[in-house]
Amino acid sequence: MGVRSRAERTTAPQAKPRLKNLPLSEVYKLIEPGPVALLATARNGRPNVMTMSWHMMVEFEPPLIACVVSDRNFSFDALRATKECVIGIPSVDLAVKAVWIGNSSGRDADKFEAVGLTQMAASCVGAPLIGECFANLECKVVDSGFVKKYNLFILEVVKAWINPTRKNPKTIHHHGFGKFVVDGEAITLKSRKP
């Protein structure tokens, strides 16, 4: 498929697209930022894990991640008090467990035990790594200036782990109310860097 010239674009008859009003409450479904992640915390010797999809990279080096953790979540108080966590990146094989974790509260259950996730000792933070995740990021809160207004934490990744036996894991992306998309075909395009 080639690119049409300007003359072709201006002379060709164009049908107006049909647009439909989208409720503002559904905008997040269009730009949900990244793969579903699991956020592990530990406070007073009690580990917890929650499902999270509202996060984004804000800096390359050191790696900084912004994430929203609702003040209604059990993990919020632990993250605010300890200022550290682990972000585990699950692949599609953990989708059912991630949904159960997201629909449950750490106030009511030990979610690691309930879904059979393996806690592993982290090297820089007190929160556990999640053995079944193909990647784990040990993080420390470096900016909590937006927590009070937006529940937004800025995290610095201080140690990153990857499972080398997991080749091309497929992540899941949340589209709202139980709907997820699984990573699809990967393509490589010419870039400024090799």
What can you tell me about this protein's structure?
With 194 residues, this protein is an alpha+beta fold. The protein has a single domain, classed as Pnp Oxidase, Chain A (Roll), CATH 2.30.110.10. The protein is 19% helix and 32% strand. It is built from six helices and eleven strands. It has a seven-stranded antiparallel beta sheet. It has a two-stranded antiparallel sheet with strand order 6-7.
Give a topology summary.
Elements: H1 6-11, H2 28-31, E1 37-43, E2 46-52, E3 55-59, E4 64-68, H3 74-82, E5 84-89, H4 95-102, H5 111-115, E6 119-120, E7 129-130, E8 135-146, H6 147-150, E9 152-162, E10 172-174, E11 180-182
Antiparallel strand pairs: 1-2, 1-5, 3-4, 4-9, 5-8, 6-7, 8-9, 10-11
Question: What features would you highlight for this structure?
Answer:
11 strands, 6 helices, two-stranded antiparallel sheet, 194 residues, 7-stranded antiparallel β-sheet, alpha+beta
DSSP summary, beta strand count: 11
What's the story with the biggest beta sheet?
A: 7 strands, antiparallel
- Uncertain segments are none
CATH topology: Pnp Oxidase, Chain A
- Helical region count? 6
- Please name the CATH architecture: Roll
> What is the C-level CATH assignment?
Mainly Beta
Percentage of β-strand residues? 25-35%
Averaged pLDDT, please? 90
Termini, distance in Å?
A: 26 Å
Strand order of the largest sheet: 2-1-5-8-9-4-3
Tell me the series of helices and strands, N- to C-terminal: HHEEEEHEHHEEEHEEE
Count of folded domains: 1
Shape descriptor: globular
CATH 4th-level superfamily? Electron Transport, Fmn-binding Protein, Chain A
Give Rg in angstroms: 20 Å
